[in-house]
TrEMBL record:
PANTHER family: GNAT FAMILY, PUTATIVE (AFU_ORTHOLOGUE AFUA_3G00765)-RELATED-RELATED (PTHR43792). This is GNAT family N-acetyltransferase. Keywords: Transferase. Residues 21-179 form the N-acetyltransferase domain. InterPro entries: Acyl_CoA_acyltransferase, GNAT_dom, N-acetyltransferase. It comes from the Bacteria. Pfam families: Acetyltransf_3. GO terms for molecular function: acyltransferase activity, transferring groups other than amino-acyl groups. Gene3D superfamilies: 3.40.630.30.
């Protein structure tokens, strides 16, 4: 695995690689590849927002760069087509990031999401983050399993935390400390 800085200094997410993946800065053009997933009610069931209604709406969302937030498109080496993404937003208390992720259905079941999230987690800890957290719907068994395989611990349940397109939803909070990760190495 390598940390390489993109040649464009305006990019917020540095290029990260694994044996099977290339994680580059997510760009608005990635909306074309990911719209089918992000407009699907089944895929978006566990998100805190409704499915996207148009590719242009998703493109606009991908163009938004919130301060302290980095987004990586998941691609395969030698290809630039996005098959998913990992997002990391720095929390206001400093030293803490919250992650989120999505992987296209055709790429699921191969361990790629776990590989991509693990790589971003390693990068964030190498950059000095002390804690990484994730917020997950209690019925999202696949995401819960991924987080637990990576060593995240369930820290709590927030009742009626999100008012979503599915109504009021609870949220499970998972956390991983840099010291937890170091202990697993």
């Amino acid at each position: 695995m390598t940390d390489e800085t993109d040649p464009d200094p305006s990019e917020e997410a540095p290029l990260l690689t694994t044996a099977r993946l290339r994680l580059r800065a997510r760009v608005p053009g990635d909306a074309a590849e990911l719209f089918a997933e992000m407009s699907d009610p089944k895929v978006m069931a566990w998100w805190s927002r409704a499915p996207f209604g148009s590719e242009s709406e998703l493109r606009a969302r991908f163009a938004t760069r919130a301060e302290g937030r980095r987004a990586w498109a998941i691609t395969r080496p030698g290809e630039d087509r996005a098959i998913g993404f990992v997002v990391a937003g720095e929390r206001p208390q400093g030293g803490v990031s919250e992650i989120g992720y999505l992987l296209a259905r055709h790429a699921q079941g191969q361990g790629l999401a776990q590989e991509a999230v693990a790589r971003v987690v390693d990068h964030l800890f190498a950059q000095g983050q002390r804690r990484i957290c994730a917020d997950c719907d209690p019925e999202n068994a696949a995401s819960i399993a991924l987080l637990e395989r990576l060593g995240f611990r369930r820290e709590g349940r927030l009742r009626a935390e999100w008012h979503t397109h599915m109504g009021l939803r609870d949220s499970l909070i998972y956390g991983l400390l840099a010291t937890d990760r170091a202990g697993r190495a």
